[in-house]
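Q: Here's a chain of 269 amino acids. Please give me its 3D structure as tokens.
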Amino acid sequence: MIGVVITGVCGRMGKCLTRCIDQQADMQLVGAIQYPLHPHIGSDAGVVAGIGDIGVAIAGELDDVLEDADVLIEFSKPEAAVGYLQQVVNTDKAIVIGTTGFDSDELATVKELASQIRCVMAPNMSLSVNVMIQVLNLIAKTLGDDYNIEVIEAHHNHKADSPSGTALRLAETVATALGRDLDEAGIYGRHGIVGARPKKQIGIHAVRGGDIAGDHTVMFATKGEQLSVVHRAHSPEAFAKGAIRAARWIIDAPKGLHDVSEVLFQKQP
């Protein structure tokens, strides 16, 4: 039985993960974390998630529950994620990181720490989004520079970071496939008299509203035709299922930082 700890357990993803893990025959929730002083500290994680009492009280400190865990599934905030990762390194556990919005310094720290343990990290844990990334690499290389590329993402009105980590990953994928530097080619929205679109520009646009779980479109447009690759998540369950699959995979993986593409396409050694 794989012992799992969830961070951010009172959030949208945390509640969804609690429900999904409860349905797994080979997994058991052994710890649930929320930031200290949260009103649900001490409450049962199953009750908060809407599935009834499962005998797992929500704690405010990861150290209180990490000993019994095999893997931590981390969906919280960047500053908290870095601290949790350090604790995972200290105990030599495995971790799945779905948190996004890291700045460059935080990301460098995450990569350095993750290299010491078994870690899967991705800006989007949806399995089909990660298939989409593979497809976009092929499309961009095949179509080349004759097509203008635009990335459009939409999320719920509580999402803190913009553009989404997934949109950035999609833009980086096509930029790399075409030999472009996203820092130079990327433009984040347009306003005013911007003139004609530079041929190698990659547009990235963010929309926020309602309870949109996550929509991502990558458009390739040229004279006479347009090709769009679209992914729509209808609920957080899409990301929870991917995180659970990654948690199952990482238990026996070699130490180091791994991507969801490895979970999908590579067999365990």
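Q: Can you summarize the key feature?
A: Residues 127-143 form the longest helix (17 residues).
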